[in-house]
Amino acid sequence: MAGRALTYAAAVIVLTCTAHAFHTSPHDPIIAQVTDHRNNHLIGTPTEHRFTEFIQEHGKQYNSREEYLHRLGVFSKNLLRAAEHQLLDPTAVHGVTPFSDLSEEEFESMYLGVKAGGVNPRNSGVGTAAPKDVRDLPEDFDWRDKGAVTEVKTQGACGACWAFSTTGVLEGANFIATGKLRNLSEQQLVDCDHTCDPSEKDACDSGCSGGLMTNAYGYLMKTGGIQTEESYPYTGKAGECRFDPEKIAVKVANFTNIPADEDQMAAYLVNHGPLAVGLNAVFMQTYIGGVSCPLICSKKRVNHGVLIVGYGGKGFSILRLGNKPYWIIKNSWGKRWGENGYYKLCRGSGMCGMNTMGITTVNGRSRHTVAAGINLAAGNGTKKGSTVFFFLAS
Ligand SMILES: *[C@@H]1O[C@H](CO)[C@@H](O)[C@H](O)[C@H]1NC(C)=O
Ligand SMILES: *[C@@H]1O[C@H](CO)[C@@H](O)[C@H](O)[C@H]1NC(C)=O
Ligand SMILES: *[C@@H]1O[C@H](CO)[C@@H](O)[C@H](O)[C@H]1NC(C)=O
């Protein structure tokens, strides 16, 4: 594969994420007026009762009666949408979430929108790792049990999921290499990393407006490494780069994409630590818990970057289909979203595009890679003849 031209078959996008943000954008007063009238009928209904509970639970503040009525209308629609998602995704629980006062359009445009058309996110010089033996993998596996996963973080009103996904992989790899768990700095990536995909100049890392984990690894290889969260704390806003090479906590030597086959992903996960992936977040706005396994979830709209930390062998059951396996996914929307900040997604069918972000054609043969499927082998693993990449922690 090395040295040959790659033909990219699929569009790749910059992940613009979703965020855990509740400050709603100033909305159009005309829309508010119209909706005010429409929403008067909701006053005093059980829907309004649930809305006031929601406001209390999430500490929401609306500045005017108009805003209140408008958000009540949106909330009411989201109750319907959650019910629809419930029908489409019966093995998960959908309902009121911290995002229930944002319309689907707001949720998408503020936190999900596709920023750039592009091609494969594979950085030049970074190949796809060799397939692994998938026999004898444990039925259940969870890096959290081994202490390799930091606490769930909160990206806030900033489309920086790509940075959180990136640090999650490094935190895991660093733990495996050194036995120490450290929070690593998303803010360094948000402020300093403006790397563009070598094959797609519009697919650039741009702070709170999206990015790609593969770009971020390219940046980290170039710049030398990443600081800790403590030495470069998260602000949730893009600012001036304050990276200090003296304070590098973890160095990145190289990274690789891994085969997108979900058995391969499991093998890499078990052997080398948490994996960064992109997926379509459409069902996540209403997700409360359980294993999400929607009947329909477009694989083409990959818009959110997350971290796979484990999997379960038999998590849930669809009528007559028996127990099905699932992935355990760390999100960056705080602990009050999902299952204490985590998402479970059914495993084995590329659900919501979780393994399809970087479909490529190599030498005319169709080949799948996990788009941001970055994998860093621990410690001094310089295994000859394989594409296991090592990762140096200082
Ligand atoms: C990273 O790995 C790729 C793929 O094997 C290799 O071509 C490249 O030279 C490596 N880069 C560095 C900096 O080691
Ligand atoms: C990571 O940061 C969080 C929030 O500040 C803190 O509670 C946690 O203990 C930190 N974890 C590590 C391993 O330092
Ligand atoms: C690094 O290499 C040494 C010597 O070959 C070995 O004993 C050690 O287990 C390796 N460490 C890791 C994390 O692979």
From TrEMBL:
<keyword id="KW-0788">Thiol protease</keyword>
<dbReference type="InterPro" id="IPR000169">
    <property type="entry name" value="Pept_cys_AS"/>
</dbReference>
<protein>
    <recommendedName>
        <fullName>Cysteine proteinase</fullName>
    </recommendedName>
</protein>
<dbReference type="GO" id="GO:0006508">
    <property type="term" value="P:proteolysis"/>
</dbReference>
<dbReference type="GO" id="GO:0000323">
    <property type="term" value="C:lytic vacuole"/>
</dbReference>
<keyword id="KW-0865">Zymogen</keyword>
<dbReference type="Pfam" id="PF08246">
    <property type="entry name" value="Inhibitor_I29"/>
</dbReference>
<keyword id="KW-0325">Glycoprotein</keyword>
<dbReference type="GO" id="GO:0008234">
    <property type="term" value="F:cysteine-type peptidase activity"/>
</dbReference>
<dbReference type="InterPro" id="IPR025660">
    <property type="entry name" value="Pept_his_AS"/>
</dbReference>
<feature type="domain" description="Peptidase C1A papain C-terminal">
    <location>
        <begin position="137"/>
        <end position="362"/>
    </location>
</feature>
<dbReference type="InterPro" id="IPR000668">
    <property type="entry name" value="Peptidase_C1A_C"/>
</dbReference>
<keyword id="KW-0732">Signal</keyword>
<dbReference type="InterPro" id="IPR039417">
    <property type="entry name" value="Peptidase_C1A_papain-like"/>
</dbReference>
<feature type="domain" description="Cathepsin propeptide inhibitor">
    <location>
        <begin position="51"/>
        <end position="107"/>
    </location>
</feature>
<dbReference type="InterPro" id="IPR025661">
    <property type="entry name" value="Pept_asp_AS"/>
</dbReference>
<dbReference type="InterPro" id="IPR013128">
    <property type="entry name" value="Peptidase_C1A"/>
</dbReference>
<comment type="similarity">
    <text>Belongs to the peptidase C1 family.</text>
</comment>
<dbReference type="InterPro" id="IPR013201">
    <property type="entry name" value="Prot_inhib_I29"/>
</dbReference>
<keyword id="KW-0378">Hydrolase</keyword>
<keyword id="KW-0645">Protease</keyword>
<dbReference type="Pfam" id="PF00112">
    <property type="entry name" value="Peptidase_C1"/>
</dbReference>
<feature type="signal peptide">
    <location>
        <begin position="1"/>
        <end position="21"/>
    </location>
</feature>
<dbReference type="InterPro" id="IPR038765">
    <property type="entry name" value="Papain-like_cys_pep_sf"/>
</dbReference>
<keyword id="KW-1015">Disulfide bond</keyword>
